[in-house]
Amino acid sequence: MSHRPPPGICLVLTGPRLKDCLKQLQESRHHIDLAELRADLVDRADWDGLNAFSRQAGLPLILTLRQPRDGGKWTGTPADREAFFQAALDGDWTWFDLEDDQRLLALEAQWLGKGRRLVVSFHDFDGVPDGWAARLLAAEGPGITAKAAVFPQSSTDFLKFVTDLQTLPQGDRVALAMGGYGFSSRVLAARLGSRWTYASAPGQTAAPGQTDPQTLAVLYRFREQAPDTPVFGIVGNPVFHTKSPFIHNPALAALGLAGTYVPFLADDLPAFFAVCDRLGVQGLSCTIPFKEDVLLHVAETTAAVKATGACNTLWRQPGGPWKGDNTDAPGFMAPLAEKLSGSLEGLRATVVGTGGAARGIVWALKEAGVKVVVLGRTPDKAHSLALDFDVDWAPLGPESRLVVEDHPDLIIQTTSVGMGDTEDQDPLEWYDFTGRELAYDIIYAPRWTKFLTRAKKAGCKILFGEDMLVGQAFGQFRRFTGQDYPKEALKL
Ligand code: NAP
Predict the structure, then answer these.
(1) Would you give the distance in Å from CA 78 to the centre of its chain?
(2) Euclidean distance between CA atoms 370 and 103, whole angstroms
(3) Rounded Cα distance, 469 and 472, in Å
């Protein structure tokens, strides 16, 4: 166990006026430990007030002047830059941030002589270059926090970032991976040995992948993390639309369990699982498109996985082999059983769609004794699903109206039609609800799909995608922690 202090949250102040920076600071003050003033983003008319600002701020400040090559807006000569920091020597800044290839050695000596500190930084917006970690190490020194921000373009790049970083001896540093693939590095600073992480004011993003201080402090419990805090997460592509962190993190907090749950964007599972080993990940939710491919990385599976061929939950003892479950099916069934308050035996159901989710749902319905017909737009897929689970199938179209009328107790919508670009579409528009059906759409964003709105209008009972989402998450939480989900923690 390390005795390093917990890392801090640094709010990047993005102007354009100093009064705006002050407002950003006040609004996030409870959730931050330090702030960085990006002078390159501040209107030149306000530069005379920078030192006064540093005295007003009331918390440790970094003064930074970034150029376009480092993601900033300042353009000027080296002499202008030196004059800028010279003028700042009278300010109450804790750190000057100087790029590692543009040091100001004489000025630095004066600054360090006053007991102040330096951040010596470099940025790479194209990838994770060879030698980046050695460059970070070379920047370290007395009074210096070394900073590197690189930009992984893939899971393999992110693995390189984590591996390289973990080969370094402990040091006074901040190492960040920007963008989607590196997002977890912004949350897991304690585990990665960074002294702080950077955050943007709500609604602003000073660098790719930054989130806001409240999300870091409250959702991810950033300041409570230690190097050995358990890590859970969700892997997918895309993944940042997920609600899962808002389900699992509050539950971990409500039970007083150490742990944080983060989204992981991935494009390559072997590299991603190597990252999991390095970051100590011990529980994973798995979403599109990995529910089948993750099985190559799982040593033991439940009956639900074996029956459906899909896995949405992985867990393990630290360092041990992964086990896999599919909580989609029970998560789908639990609200259904509650709504109908009793056995489903003998009911007749229409399942619209033949994708991964439909497979789990058809299996669970069959297990419960429901007579199922599947409707699919791709006959081969519908046919093969019907064969696998011994149910009937029909094409997805008006020619199947009578088939639906013959399976009217439960109408279950499992396609992705009704969300995103197809939010204005209803895959069953040709079917007129009678009001006696129970309509269940597993899409959870939007809450009210066109399909559900129409069913509700006809007087049907309704179940939402969110009901299933919560049900499957409860099952995952049990796998991750061995404890029941504390329902009072659920605030979606
Ligand atoms: P998937 O494996 O990609 O399957 C998608 C299904 O939608 C396929 O049957 C596909 O048909 C069909 N489809 C797509 N576009 C269509 C169109 N224009 N017309 C007719 N059919 C169309 O995805 P999945 O994992 O099953 O997920 C499906 C949906 O369920 C997603 O919206 C997902 O977010 C949601 N979901 C929700 C939960 C929850 O907890 N609420 C859990 C899992 C999934 P083809 O095969 O013919 O292309």
Answers:
(1) 40
(2) 72
(3) 5
Radius of gyration of the chain (CA): 27
CB 454 within 8 A of CB 209: no
Q: Ligand 1: which of 362, 415, 428, 451 to mutate, most ligand atoms within 8 Å of CB?
A: 415
Neighbours of 466 (CB within 10 A): 17
Ligand 1 site, residue 419, Cβ cutoff 6 A: yes
Q: What pLDDT sits at residue 208? A: 79
Number of alpha carbons in the 13 Å side-chain half-sphere of residue 141: 14
Residue 313 beta carbon below 6 angstroms from any ligand 1 atom: no
Instruction: State the Cα–Cα distance between residues 325 and 327, nearest whole angstrom.
Output: 6
Question: How far is Cα 477 from Cα 283, in angstroms, rounded to an integer?
Answer: 9
Regions of the chain short of the pLDDT cut 70: 1-5
Total residue length of the chain:
492
Q: Which two tokens stand for residue 293?
A: 């491919």
CA pair distance 374, 452, nearest whole angstrom: 19
Q: Which residues contact 387 (CB under 8 A, 6 or more apart)?
A: none
Helix axis angle, 356-367 to 379-389, nearest 10°: 30
Cα separation, 132 vs 407, in Å, equals 61
Residues whose CB falls within 8 Å of the CB of residue 158, separated by 6 or more in sequence, listed in order: 128, 152, 177, 181, 182, 185, 271, 275
Is the minimum distance from the CB of 330 to ligand 1 under 6 angstroms? Answer: no
Residue 456: burial class (beta carbons within 10 Å; 0-12, 13-18, 19+): middle
Q: How many CB atoms lie within 10 A of CB 47?
A: 15
Task: Encode pLDDT of 316-356 as tens digits.
Answer: 998 899 999 999 999 999 999 999 988 899 999 999 999 88
Distances (CA, A) of 332 to 29, 125, 218: 42, 42, 29
- The ligand 1 atom at the shortest distance from the C-alpha of residue 416 is 32
- Tens-digit pLDDT profile for residues 216-225: 999 999 999 9
Catalytic residue check, 450: no
Helix (H) or strand (E) run with residue 386 in it = helix 379-389
